[in-house]
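Sample entry (569 residues):
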Amino acid sequence: MEKSEAKGRNDEETNSTHSAKFSRSSGKLTVRSVATGSSRSSASSRASMAAARAQAEAQAAKARLAYAEKEMTIKVEKARLEATLDVINLQKEADAAMAKAEVMESAAAQFDTADAGQELRFLPLQTTPEQKVSEYINKHSYTDLAEDNRETFQYDDDTYQNAECKQPIVYTPFFLKQEPMQYTFAPQDAKRPSKRDVIPQTLHNVLQPQQEQNQNKTADTTTSDLARFLARSQLLTGGLSKFDDKPETYLSWKATFQSTIRDLGLTASEEMNLLIKWLGTESSEHAKRLKAVNIKNPPAGLYMIWQRLEECYGSPEALENSLRKLPDNRSYAHQRLMSLRRTLDKKPEMKTHFVEFMQKMLDNQHAELAPPRSKDKEAWYLPIFGVYHPQKPGKIRVVFDSSAQFNGVSLNDILLSGPDLNNTLLGVLLRFRKEPVAITADIEQMFYCFVVQEDHRDYLRFLWYEDNDLTKAVMDYQMRVHVFGNSPSPAVAIYGLRMAAREAESEYGTDARNFIEQDFYVDDALKSFPTEAEAIDVLQRAQKMLALSNLRLHKIASNKVQVSSPFLD
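Predicted structure, serialized as tokens:
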């Protein structure tokens, strides 16, 4: 027994030794087997994941299919309900038409019966004071009978019994110029008339056309009021489009709004409320403030609201500003200034003239230092350069280049030129050659005589040196007056010139005003007079007339020495 157990242990040790030897001798083969098993396990894992994903997609598709079936069922039910509703509406219209036809046929049959002499039953009339009086008389027409005989008036709907019959009672309403209405009592053996037989035929014939006419008028009025009510309801619920506070769409919105409310008969208060509802955020604020100020005078408030809308959104300036915007061209103006500086450094005489001109402009307060510019505010910088007149080589004129473009835009592209108020050159020359005494004159720096509105001066900025010293830093300046080169400057100056003449006409005469209005070509005057005295008189009064508005008429010349000598500077 012990020998067998020892032998078994020896066999196990031998097997273990052989296994270890095999593992050591074939270690490379064992590693390869492990790697191959790992690859198979990874492939199996991927297949399992793919199968799980496919299973999930199948479940999702199944869920979508179930909801699609439910959705289809609901859509079918919705379509069925809509079709049923359409059928009900058609049935309603058909029943209404049938009812209307039956009523009209019944009325036609009654009228035919009435024409044949039979009784015509009418709907009860609206009770009026006169009818109430008539009913009272019908009810109490036996008041003169004996007290003890009243008990004998025992009757039913068919007959009534009375011992004696009185004379017919005649009742004539005070407002009708018709034959008397007869109330006749039948004999004892006659049938008692129904209550409608007691109604006087004459009164009924008179009141029937009046009632029909009043009913027609009432129906027309009701229909018109209903139409207005429906139109107003449609406006309040979406009949108009809301204004978007853009000037380019204001005119079309205004035309649509006014054409829509034209026939509604709105009051001023109603129109204001409707305007506030359909205006934009900014424009409705204007309307609300004006309505609050004029709460006791709605027509005035409505007028002011439309006036404010025209100013803010309907004016040419607002439309022009909304269509085009000016870019920031300060860098371009600085480049032009540096180019001018190089030119002035090369030409000392021109540099001297240029600095003198700028100093004179600053001394006369035609230009000023510009305030700090806010980033959100639009502005434009005018490049400057100098030019000489061919006949005046020692006098320079600084030009503000309003036509200079930056990114394809210039100031003159944005500004409105205004109306052409200038006289025709041909007309001025023809009148100039009419009389023997000719004169010429000029207005000194005409454009500089008219000040620009303060909030518009940001569009007339320019760059120049601090204190007019070319060795100092470049600063932002702005013009206070209209400049040569701006497209609206001629219209502004001519309008101001004529306004000055018109305001002083009562003091200096109509002929002086006519001279200023008809014989100027921009700032140059050409006029002829019959005599020297008349020429001197008109010129002197014209000078005084223009001086009231800070306009100086100078450089007066004439073909007659007697005329020009009193005006020598």
